[in-house]
Amino acid sequence: MINGKRVLALIPARGGSKGIPNKNVYKINRKPLIAYTINSALECDYIDSVVVSTDSEVITKAAIRAGAEVPFMRPSELASDTSKTIDVVLHAIEALKNMGREFDYVVLLQATSPLRTASDIAGALDTFVKNEEKGLVSVSEAEESPILMRKFDENGFLVRIIEGNSTIRRQDLPTYYKVNGAIYINRVDDLNKDTSLNDNEIGYIMDKTHSADIDEYKDIAEVNYYLGLLGRK
User: Fold this and answer.
1) What is the Cα Rg of the chain in Å?
2) Can you tell me whether residue 50 is helix, strand or coil?
3) How far apart are CA 204 and CA 52, in angstroms?
4) Closest by alpha carbon to 212, among 124, 110, 128, 67?
5) Cα end-to-end distance, the chain, whole Å
6) Is residue 147 part of a domain?
7) Higher pLDDT, 161 or 69
8) Is the pTM of this model over 0.85?
């Protein structure tokens, strides 16, 4: 609980995955991927309940073993490649409400961000409350400046993505941030089907060492590197 409000940590984890089969339970250092996110949520003092939304019995067993709750199964229509995250969130909130469990804030934690820590979650919640409970999304510094990026127009010519002087030294370029997918925080009452979580207006800056997102096998090597660097193996 924070600010007198009940906080739900929701971890979406569907069974289907293309890049890495059974990605959410893929073992990293003999530990299922989803367990890293569950552990960080459980270690955060502000979190009241840690719930996993899944359609998979395998993920259910791994989640419960790691200490999370799986009080309902996600319907198949919300577990496809085209399912929207906001629909998964709304389903979970309604399912819990029907069980007599209501929350004020929902913290969405994707299982593919295993390096996010309890301190990151607590810091994000502090930032959320200090900013009048406006929607928050975690970000990390972008490695490439969009000033140096181009796209082809309909005539095949290169055009800028954003305006800006690209002749200045790289070290003098402005700092840009990208959504890293690790933490999203919203007031439950503010959510609806049109909510775009990536467009939450408050940014919580996370260090690159905590921001890795696993999508392909090559990302696992990066996570293992940072786990060793951070002494978390």
Assistant:
1) 19
2) strand
3) 23
4) 110
5) 30
6) no
7) 69
8) yes
Q: Answer whether residue 69 is part of any domain.
A: yes
Has residue 219 been placed in a domain? yes
Buried b (16+ CB within 10 A) or exposed e, 142-163: eeeeebeeeeeeeeeeeeeeee
Expressed as residue numbers, the domain containing 114 is 7-141+176-229
Which two tokens mark 36? 């890293």
Q: Which region holds residue 200: left if phi is over 0, alpha if psi is between -120 and 50, else beta?
A: beta
pLDDT tens, 81-119?
888 999 999 999 999 999 999 999 999 999 999 999 999
Least confident interval from 66-70, 104-108, 170-174: 170-174
Residue whose structure tokens are 């709304």: 90
**What's the confidence (pLDDT) of residue 24?**
92
* Residue that has been written with the tokens 């996010």 in this structure: 116
